[in-house]
Each structure stands twice: as structure tokens, then as C-alpha cells.
Amino acid sequence: MAKRDQPSLLLQTLDQTLEKGVETLTDDEKFAAFKNRAINDNEQTFGKEVREQYGEDIVNASNEKFRKMSQAQVAQLTALQQKILDELKPLVGTTDFNTPEAKHLFKLHKQFLQLTWPSKQYSPKAHRSLAALYVSDPRFSKYYEDGTGKNGAAETLNAIIRHYTR
User: Fold this and answer.
1) pTM for the complete prediction?
2) Residue 69, SS3 per DSSP
3) Superkingdom of this entry's organism (predicted)?
4) For residues 55 and 48, what is the distance between their CA atoms, to the nearest angstrom?
5) For 76-125, what is each residue's pLDDT tens digit?
6) What is the pLDDT of residue 23?
7) CA distance linking residue 152 with residue 142, whole number of Å
8) Burial class (CB in 10 A: 0-12, 13-18, 19+), 84
9) Among 20, 70, 156, 165, which has the highest number of CB atoms less than 10 A from its own CB?
10) 3-class DSSP assignment, residue 166
11) Neighbour count for residue 22 (Cβ, 10 Å)
């Protein structure tokens, strides 16, 4: 779905909500609205940079993949995001990435990307490229610093990803 179509999809969902009333929306309709809102929020926050980095087609395919996820898949993704933050926290500031903990964190992050990126889009180069955004863009850095409560979290994650994708 093109970026330009997202606001109309959100308006359509809003129209359905107003017509039916929030309480009469089905769980599936509420979940679809949740996913559309998450995509829109992500586009507002990071869309420009990610589209410049990866292109319209890949970002649109990734958004569509998320839109088609089941509640169980989204729950798995959310749990994985939290696990990444939890496992990153004790590693912040470390310089020894040849540890089971660092390798496991890398594998979790790779798994997250493989769940969210379009099929066959994952590559070590693309992974490194995304990790570079984590340190070059303060909004990405803030996500990891807020999530771990530690300054330097994005830098540590970037270094771990670079280490395991070389």
C-alpha cells in the first residue's frame, strides 16, 4: 500500500468506528485499526529516513507484511522487541562482543528484522545499514536509550550488529 493511501485507510477505519460505535467494532476491526495506527505512527516518526534508505517498495512491502500479521504474530513481535531491550541493557558499554550474550542479542535482532522485513530482504549489509541509522539519527538512539534506561544503548547495539555482520 502506498504511503499516500495510509491516511485514507485510517479515515476509513475512523468512519467505521463512528458509524458502528467503538463498542460494536469487532475485535478484528479493532486490531486492524491498531495495526494501521502503528504503521502511521512509525511512518510519521521514521518514514522519511527509512524510505530514503531502503526505497518505497521495500517499506511498503514491510508495512503490508505487518498489516497482515495475526494477533499472535504481533504479540510475538512485541515480546521480541522487549526481549531485545532487556538483553541489550546489561551489554551497554561493553566492548567484548565475543560473548554468548552479545551473539544472542544479535540473533534476536536479526529475527526481529526477518519477521518485519519483506521476504528475502534480509542481508548482513542491510542489517548494518539499519544499525548505522540507530546511531546517526537521534530518534532511533532515543528509542534504545529510553528502552534500556542507558545512554549509549544504540551505539552498543550498532557495534554488536557490525561485529556479527562483517
Assistant:
1) 0.77
2) coil
3) Bacteria
4) 10
5) 999 999 999 999 999 999 999 999 999 999 999 999 999 999 988 999 99
6) 60
7) 10
8) buried
9) 156
10) coil
11) 10
- 84, 105 contact by CB (below 8 A): yes
3-state secondary structure (DSSP) of residue 50:
helix
Q: Sign (positive/negative) of CA torsion 152, 156, 157, 161? A: positive
In the block, residue with C-alpha cell 561493553: 94
pLDDT band at 25 (very low <50, low <70, confident <90, very high): confident
User: DSSP class of residue 96?
Assistant: -
The beta-carbon contacts of 77-80 under 8 Å, at least 24 apart in sequence, are 77/112, 77/115, 77/116, 80/108, 80/111, 80/112, 80/115
For residue 112, give the nearest of 65, 45, 159 by alpha carbon. 65
Grid cell 534506561 in the structure block, residue = 149
Domain edges within the chain: 1-68, 70-166
Residues of the chain with pLDDT > 90, as a percent, come to 65
Question: What sign for the dihedral angle of Cα 110, 111, 114, 115?
Answer: negative
Sign of the Cα pseudo-torsion (27, 28, 31, 33, in order):
negative
